[in-house]
Amino acid sequence: MELEQLKKLIRDVPDFPSKGIMFRDLTTMLKHSDALRDMSKALADIYRGKGVTKVVGIESRGFIGGSILAYELGAGFVPARKPGKLPSVTVKKAYAKEYGVDTIELHSDAITSDDVVVIHDDLLATGGTMEACYELVKSMNPKKIYISFIVELTALDGRANLPEDCEVSSLLKY
User: What is the pLDDT of residues 97-142, one digit of tens each?
Assistant: First the structure.
């Protein structure tokens, strides 16, 4: 299946989670085994041979692609969670979203200076969530950080909020 064909399987949900937001529902793509397999392979192919040791998946939809990516690359998986969901010592960062303010946390021992990390989320909108997660990961001093999305909403220019010195990849662009 061509990547552009995957777009046809993504449902548009107007006014969710609030009025004026066009939500791109990837669950309608993920339920198709061929689409899931092709999306997973395309994500992993971007990072094969780059020495990735950890994939950080951002709660909650980033857990799906992030877990698959970690498995495909033979890397560990690290969940980036909302406050109070991780059971040990954490580091955290507050950030603005397109429809509010939130906080993200990582276990303080999740990333080491020997790691090469891919931070993954399902969708790039304004970039606030990814920017906060990037700052947390960077504070742990890994060797290298990559940023990965399945979908990018280019009109919102979220890339402008991401670090210029970091490779950012999106499979599908709207």
Answer: 766 789 999 999 999 999 999 999 999 998 999 999 999 999 999 9
* Residues catalogued as catalytic: 61, 98
Q: Which residue has the tokens 């399987």?
A: 9
Q: Which of the 8 DSSP states describes residue 67?
A: H
- Tell me if the pTM is above 0.85: yes
| Ranges assigned E (strand) in 2-124 | 11-14, 22-25, 54-58, 76-80, 90-97, 100-107, 116-124
Whole-angstrom Cα distance, residue 121 to residue 88? Answer: 23
